[in-house]
Every structure is written in C-alpha cells, then in structure tokens.
Design a protein that fits this description.
nucleotide-binding, ABC transporter ATP-binding protein, ATP binding, 6-stranded mixed sheet, globular, binds adenosine-5'-triphosphate, ATP-binding, Rossmann fold
Length: 285
C-alpha cells in the first residue's frame, strides 16, 4: 500500500499556496509535518484527504486516484481544526455517526480513551471546551479503521498532562495497530521522540524530508568568539547565526567531525533550532 502525492499546486486568488509538492508516504510510519504559520500545511492535508481540490497534480493510493473514489477516501482520515460536528450532537452519537460513515470503529479503544481523558460521553459538542473538542476529535481519529491518519494541530488547547497522555496513547495504538500517522504541529521538541520522519514545508514547498536522527546527527551548533567561529566554519553550510556579546553560535548543516581548535565548542543541533533556522526569512535573524 502506498500513498503518493504528486506535483500538487494550489493558489488562492493568484497567490500560490502550494507550489509543486510531491511526497511519498511510507506504510506504517509516523511523520511530523512542520512549517511556519501560513506555510501551506493545512491546505496540503485538506487536499490529500480530498476535502478540497488541488489546481493540478494528484493524490494516489496504490496508484489509484483518490478524487471521486469514496472507498479509497475512507482509508484516509483527517483530524482538522475545523469543527465539523453539529453543535448539539452528543459525544456518543458522534462516535456512532463515525462508525456508520467509516464502516467500523474501535469501540474498545474509544471507550478506554474516553475514560482515560475523563471525557463525558453524554455532553453535547458545543458544551466541550477547546481542549476537550481536541480530545474528542483525537479519539475519533484513532478509532476509525483508516490506514492513513492525518492530525492537523492535534494538541490545540490540551494541557501538559493531557498532551503527555496523548503522546503515550499514540505510541500504544501505533504499536497495537501500525498505520501511517502524519502530525502537523508547532511543538516540535515535545513530539520529536515519536516522529520517525520530518517533512518541512516552507512557502508552499517541501524543503526537506529527513529522519529526526539524521537531522540531529547531520547538524551542529558551533560557538566561540566571532573571529574563531567565522574562520572555523569557512566553507561549511551555515544555515543561521546567533550572537550575544562577543560570543556567537553558528548553526551548520551536514557537519563533518574534525579536530576542534581551542576556544571553539561544537554541540548537537536540536530540532527546534534546526527548524527555526531553515525556515527563517531574510532580515529575521
Ligand atoms: N480558503 C482560503 N482562501 C484564501 N486563502 C487561503 C484559504 N485557505 C488558506 N489560505 C491561505 O493559504 C496559505 C496557507 O494556509 P494554510 O492554512 O495551509 O497554512 P498552515 O501551514 O496550515 O498555517 P498554520 O500553521 O498557521 O495553521 C495562507 O496564506 C492562507 O492565508
């Protein structure tokens, strides 16, 4: 089974939002979709799950186009920020509606999570707080029998202990029933341990697709005095710079280990710093 996104383009009123995006999603892999505000993540996820149309390009599951094919579309599920449920519908009814629509529902998991998160199944959607709306939508997303689950900002409004429970739940359900899960989020470091592969979108394009390990191993932060760091990093791929007093830190991509001169320190690049640097606009540093 393979999900392929090919040459997707989308514009709104002549503004190009997605410019030729192509991604091959592997089976049974957890992806992190990263990008700054307005980068095009939600638009991409909406197109992949056939909620909106691309101007050109295609989304295929096992080589078959998804557009117009409801059976195939039901193998994908998007949890989005949009509130799609009728306001007065109760939690339990939403579960039943989902089961009828997707032809299956993991009631055991849904009931277990409803209790674990302390969600009242008798409450109407409109009575739920922002955090509990996210929790409800997460439970639905994890309980549908889809092979590809897309979670757009899934932890919106969740407090720290519910976020922790969500991460643990995700790992557990993934090991019980492996499938591809794509998570779009801004809380990179929190989720870094769960993600196998990062896709970074910037300005409507995929600028990088790498495993977290590869990013960490390939990057380095080089610190020291301005003159020493500048000369040590000559010829390296410097993706960003920070400075405080006479001390500077340069962020380097694809760092090759070498003898480190006195006065210079080399440390690993964390994912958050890497992301900020590769998506930085001119004049923002
Ligand atoms: N229905 C629409 N009509 C017009 N412009 C839109 C529409 N939907 C999205 N856009 C524009 O497309 C661009 C990408 O938006 P999108 O929501 O996909 O970004 P995002 O990466 O999900 O951002 P965020 O992290 O802030 O949620 C933005 O400039 C947005 O204003």
């Amino acid at each position: 089974m393979s999900l392929t996104v090919e040459n997707i383009q989308k514009s709104y009123r002549k503004q190009a939002v997605l410019k030729d995006v192509s991604i091959d999603f592997k089976e049974e892999t957890i992806y992190g979709l990263l990008g700054r505000n307005g980068a095009g993540k939600s638009t991409l996820l909406n197109i992949i799950s056939a909620r909106i149309f691309a101007d050109s390009g295609s989304v295929r599951l096992d080589s078959q186009r998804l557009i117009g094919n409801e059976v195939l579309q039901n193998r994908l599920f998007l949890m989005s920020e949009d509130n799609l449920y009728p306001k007065s519908m109760k939690v339990n009814k939403i579960f039943k509606l989902t089961e009828a629509f997707y032809g299956g529902f993991d009631w055991e998991l849904a009931n277990h999570l409803t209790q674990a998160f302390n969600l009242n199944p008798k409450l109407a959607f409109k009575k739920l707080s922002t955090g509990y709306r996210s929790i409800l939508k997460l439970i639905v997303a994890l309980s549908v029998p889809a092979d590809y689950i897309f979670l757009d900002e899934p932890i919106l409004g969740l407090d720290a202990s519910h976020r922790d429970l969500f991460y643990r739940t995700l790992i557990q359900t993934y090991s019980d029933r492996p499938r591809t899960i794509v998570i779009s989020t801004h809380l990179i470091e929190e989720i870094a341990n769960i993600i196998e592969e990062f896709i970074i979108v910037d300005n409507g394009q995929v600028i990088e697709q790498k495993s977290g390990e590869a990013i960490k191993q390939s990057g380095a932060t080089i610190s020291g005095s301005q003159a020493l760091v500048a000369s040590f990093t000559e010829g390296m791929d410097v993706i960003g710079k920070d400075g405080l007093g006479g001390l500077v830190s340069y962020y380097v991509r694809d760092y090759q280990a070498q003898v480190i001169p006195e006065g210079i320190s080399v440390s690993p690049l964390n994912l958050q710093a890497y992301f900020v640097q590769v998506t930085q606009r001119e004049g923002e540093a």
